Amino acid sequence: MSLDHFLNEVRSASVNSIGRDGSEQFANLLSVNLTTHQTAVRVSTLQKELQANQSLDLDKLVESQNYYDNDWLPFNSIVVSYLKFCRDINPRSILQSHDLLLYFYNDLSIAFLNNTYGNHMSKLMFETTKYLVPMMKRVDFFLNLQNNGKKFKRLIFVSTILTKVFNHLRSLKGQSNKKQLILFIVNNLNKVYFTINNPLLCANIFANMNLLNLKLSQYPKAQQIEYRYILGKYYMIKNQFTKAFHHLQWSYMKSSKIANEKNTLRILRLLIPVSLLTGRIPSKQALSISPEFQQHYYPLIKYLLTGNHIGFQKYLFDNQEYFKNKLLLIPLAQRSKILIFRNLLFNIMMWTQSTRFSYDQIGTTLRLSIGSPQQQSQLFGDQYLFQIINEPIDDSFIENVCVSLNENGMIKGNVLSRARTLVCSKKEPFTNIPAVYDRLFGPSSNEKWMDL
User: Where is the signal peptide (predicted)?
Assistant: First the structure.
């Protein structure tokens, strides 16, 4: 495609877009995705002609085309940026050329924000974002290793563009095909926030999404799954595990129905530990999907159910690099304690067939579960994350455990200090933990739009 032919094609697309949607044509003509054959051929052909005419003033050339009667000047900027991209791109080195893509993306976003004509850029905005964000992620990771200065410069720049686009989309009134992009844009913006190690920036995005009176079901299923997966991951980082569970569980159920194995594995890597921390035992079906899950979670489930605190912590201690890399080490080490104690008392009830427990009974089983301070010191050294008590277990500690379980809704009973006894209710002495957590910490009402 010669330069004249290209400019005529752009003119034809601009004329055809008057009174109709031109996004399909522009997404094809102005594509920067060199992995597609059509785009690669076009860029290569234009590059040869443009490099042979280095003195050509591209700004004046495009302005002379009088696109949209020069009523949409940002469109001219897109075309100029595209021609500069074609002229200067080194297809063999994205490191030398990524700035061209960012200039083009910035100009594209400005044109997209136009209230009169911007909808014609909708598909191009979608395709370019889909292509550019993963690429800039790779570039930043590489350059982060080379430079000791500010990290993630390109992704931070991309996030500013996506933020402007999001704010534009959420402010739109009436019907616009632009609105179909909002979930896609939000997902990419939130993923960028996670990549640049600023996931808490997602809070404002989620809060604004809850105010828009949207229906999640109106968007492509893959985008729905991605949105709730990221939201679940966000809640997990915030230690709001019950909320995290509901969104991750929803994503898992929907993902498994569309047979996306890679995505299912990604979701389960979070869902399985979150399930444990909310008092749920992951299904054998979920655990059997990957040897990784069987290796790392079958032992933890066994120790959790049997109330074996020292076994649970020892497994975390021995495999701490794995859990640390998954950002799970501290939540599992700390949040599991109350669940292990609850299951320990439950096992006492099953052994004794009684709902009345003396401090002596509880103390004996706690000592077996926790181990002595000497045992803990020998196993864990000075890593206090894995230790629970550095002195002998006495009545005060036993009472604190019982009171904590009672006040947190894990058991129903009374702690009788003078009698050194825990008396549990004869009717449902051990509550349903997920139900208790759901009641106390479940999803908020402003997220109901996700179920519509």
Answer: none
